[in-house]
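ok trying again, last paste got cut off:
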Amino acid sequence: MLEYTIEHKYHPDFIKIINNKVIYLEAKGRFWDYPEYSKYIWIRKVLPEECELVFLFSDPYAPMPAAKKRKDGTKRSHAEWAKKNNFRWFSRDNLPDSWKDATD
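nice, full thing came through this time. structure:
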């Protein structure tokens, strides 16, 4: 078996330096498909230790694309996906004030 990678470039929506850590802040209205949301897992794998990818969801409880209904009728949300994949996330309502000028 031969493993290979395809190089891509990632341009975060915002970059903020907080406590000597580089925060890549990705503002998402919603994910559209599996390739889109899986790329963030790949991005995190190559981030240096002093960097973190954090999501800013406009609607964190919107269902993920192609999510199957659970027995209770709900679907996995963007917030649940982020938590399961160990990504920190915020919404407009709980974004720390010190992050709100993140327009670098």
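cool. The domain at 14-95 is CATH 3.40.91.30 (Restriction Endonuclease). Strands lie at 14-18, 21-28, 51-57, 88-91.
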